[in-house]
């Protein structure tokens, strides 16, 4: 027997092993579930590297539910993590206390020509489909490569335009008009650039540290009907980067990203450029391709087929293997525009097929700095280049049960590679992957924003209950 301080009653040893009692929780619109299967289902993320089983799982039906549970957990010092699709790879959204399954909040409240107000648990793909079906046709200005991610999840990390945006737009965090947030004190707040701007800035790209986003008013822009996609292949680093730099500056090109593989694979680089258009007109292929070194493969597809092209590719892999359960020690960093080329040249000297894996990918995404307007996510120091690039080594194990050394080897690679990236190339972490970080690393990461971020944490989550998985403020 022992005394349960939370439930204020005597419990058996077996009961104590299951954690705090949630018996005193006020009535909720949604559900608080405590059964083993529901808790086990949220005990890891897409990385399958870190496992923490929570004591309880909230399936909210309102922001009020989240507020009630955060107040309860704060009073009883239980850690709380919001969870979208859990597509981070190193336990960022895990908790041994309470996990909030935000996907239960998934409504579109309004959709007009300029904005949509949505619940934070909605998937981007559902919003894109609805906005495209709107008359007149609309789209979010920036969309991640994979779109079965939640609005709240990508707004908490940044949301780089992996398939739409980046050249002429910011990230998803740059196109938010207003948020509804439940803070770590359990207060439900509306915030924007003009209202509680400190909360707005701390929450966008804020990794769930100061509040749980429950609703967002998102910018929408006109959507074109067609996408002309140009794919060019390279084995030479210098030639590839010359064409990449030409295409990101070229009028008429709306989106660019690149894939890379280990140097023993041909081609080493694939460059994807896209121009959106409304028929009967079309992009001027000759103008777009002028001066490039490689011959393109050209495809004309519908706008939504383009937006969902990565989703389709991932679903195809899912039909072949249990992709969600493969181990994914991902490495994701920002590079300044002036060093990215030397960086890739250096990486190519050591990258092996095992570093990516049959179901993984190496990716490069350009972002024009002028459109990145928010303090977070952190970008590299200004270096005179108008561009910053995200470089991903999205390693995926070939089997569900890779050899015992695989995880340690890849985490060690990430640790070493990140140190080199930061010290020699001015790189900065994009915190969706699996790079082990100490609280000192986080302080360095936030740099001159650290004291502002810490002040927001103290103000909006004074009990330090929110989102412990990253270890930014001392737990992890
Ligand atoms: C195939 C694939 C492609 C991708 N492509 C891109 C890309 O093109 N661009 C890009 O930027 N990223 C990309 N990502 C990374 C992706 O943005 C992150 O993994 C993101 O976290 C996914 O959203 P999610 O809904 O899974 O969030 P989760 O992983 O569930 O959450 C992310 C973090 O935010 C917290 N959180 C979740 N919801 C909320 C909320 N409502 N309020 C406050 N905090 C919250 C969580 O606790 C966690 O710490 C890709 C990922 C995959 C798997």
From TrEMBL:
* Keyword hit for Oxidoreductase: yes
Q: Which PROSITE patterns match?
A: FAD_PCMH (PS51387)
Q: Which cofactor does it need?
A: FAD
What is the name of the protein in this document?
Answer: FAD-binding protein
What SUPFAM superfamilies has UniProt attached to this entry? Answer: FAD-binding/transporter-associated domain-like, FAD-linked oxidases, C-terminal domain
| An example Gene Ontology biological process | cytokinin metabolic process
The record's annotation in Pfam families points to:
Cytokin-bind, FAD_binding_4
Q: Which PANTHER family does the entry mention?
A: CYTOKININ DEHYDROGENASE 3 (PTHR13878:SF127), GULONOLACTONE OXIDASE (PTHR13878)
As one GO molecular function, the record gives: FAD binding
What are the alphabetically sorted keywords of the record?
FAD, Flavoprotein, Oxidoreductase
Q: Which residues form the FAD-binding PCMH-type domain?
A: 50-223
Q: Which domain of life is it from?
A: Bacteria
- Write out the similarity annotation: Belongs to the oxygen-dependent FAD-linked oxidoreductase family.
Q: Which residues, if any, are the signal sequence?
A: none
């Amino acid at each position: 027997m022992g005394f349960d301080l939370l439930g204020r009653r005597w419990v058996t040893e077996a009961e104590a092993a299951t954690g705090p009692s949630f018996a005193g929780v006020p009535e909720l619109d949604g559900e608080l579930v405590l059964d083993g299967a529901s808790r086990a289902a949220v005990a890891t993320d897409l990385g399958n590297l870190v496992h923490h089983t929570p004591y309880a799982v909230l399936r909210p039906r309102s922001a009020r539910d989240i507020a009630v549970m955060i107040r309860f957990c704060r009073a009883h010092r239980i850690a709380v993590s919001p969870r979208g699709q859990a597509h981070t790879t190193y336990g960022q959204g895990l908790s041994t206390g309470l996990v909030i399954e935000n996907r239960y909040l998934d409504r579109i409240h309004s959709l007009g020509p300029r904005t949509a107000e949505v619940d934070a648990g909605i998937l981007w793909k559902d919003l894109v489909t609805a906005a495209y079906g709107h008359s007149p046709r609309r789209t979010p200005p920036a969309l991640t490569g994979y779109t079965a991610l939640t609005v709240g999840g990508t707004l908490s990390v940044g949301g780089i335009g992996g398939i739409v945006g980046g050249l002429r737009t910011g990230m998803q965090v740059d196109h938010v008009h207003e948020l509804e947030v439940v803070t770590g004190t359990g207060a439900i707040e509306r915030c924007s650039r003009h209202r509680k701007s400190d909360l707005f800035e701390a929450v966008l790209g804020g990794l769930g540290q100061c509040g749980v986003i429950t609703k967002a008013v998102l910018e929408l822009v006109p959507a074109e009907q067609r996408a002309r996609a140009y794919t060019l292949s390279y084995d030479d680093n210098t030639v590839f980067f010359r064409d990449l730099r030409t295409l990101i500056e070229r009028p008429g090109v709306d989106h660019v990203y690149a894939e890379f593989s280990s140097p023993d694979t041909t081609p080493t680089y694939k460059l994807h450029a896209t121009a959106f258009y409304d028929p009967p007109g079309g992009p001027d292929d000759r103008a777009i391709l002028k001066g490039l070194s490689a011959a393109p493969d050209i495809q004309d597809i519908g706008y939504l087929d383009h937006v969902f092209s990565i989703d389709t590719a991932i679903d195809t892999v899912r039909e072949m293997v249990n992709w969600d359960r493969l181990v994914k020690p991902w490495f994701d960093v920002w590079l300044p525009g002036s060093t990215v080329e030397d960086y890739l040249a250096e990486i190519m000297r050591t990258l092996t097929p095992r570093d990516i894996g049959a179901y993984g990918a190496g990716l490069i995404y350009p972002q024009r700095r002028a459109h990145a307007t928010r303090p977070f996510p952190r970008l590299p120091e200004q270096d005179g280049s108008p561009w910053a690039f995200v470089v991903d080594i999205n390693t995926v194990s070939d089997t569900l049960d890779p050899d015992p050394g695989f995880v340690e080897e890849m985490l060690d690679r990430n640790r070493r590679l990140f140190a080199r990236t930061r010290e020699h190339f001015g790189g900065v972490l994009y915190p969706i992957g699996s790079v082990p970080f100490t609280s000192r690393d986080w302080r360095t990461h936030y740099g001159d924003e650290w004291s502002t971020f810490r002040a927001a944490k103290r103000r909006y989550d004074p009990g330090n209950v929110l989102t412990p998985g990253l270890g930014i403020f001392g737990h992890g």
